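Appendix B, Record 12. Input sequence as logged:
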Amino acid sequence: MSPRKLDKTSKKKEILFAATKVFAMKGVANTKMSDIALEAGIGKGTIYEYFQSKDAIFYESFRFFMEQTDSLIANRLDKIQNPKAKLEAWIDGWLESLSNSLDQIGIMMDYWAEGIRSRKEDSAFNIKNIYEKYRQTIKKILDEGVSLGIFKPVNTMISASILIGTLDGLALQWIMDKNLFRFIEASQILKDSFLNGLMKK
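Logged structural output:
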């Protein structure tokens, strides 16, 4: 990658980080391009060299978040063979991605809301497809664990859905009331409880 292209990629990421921070503080609807420019320490005109609109930044921030999440999970799963360790790695990867964004987690509400509104198959916010991908990954791990006698014989599709729903629900509760519990501690309890319920005695 040439230095010029590297600089443009780096600047684009800086704008995305700044925008995500402002979105989380003010909400997407209340955020202006000038707010993003101020947070990024650049002129408003510079932003338009990289993004056509605030909506474009919002969509790109979601895509960037999902890419980071998928990369974290893939790195944790790499070369792991044991199904229990695989499942732990998947959960840890998801939680690490969310934990890395705790100061910006308010934007998740906007992501979910847009995902509910958007029904287009080619939309970046097609939450149905994202959940399906995660369900299939977790189901495959659970199927392997059941077949090896590590996990109890359970309905793996329902179990995968329960895990995803519980993770989302935990994050949602914490977003609504950050004084309710410590997110990292609650995440560990969730992971241990789910795994203990699956393990074959």
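Residues 151 and 199 are 5 Å apart (CA to CA).
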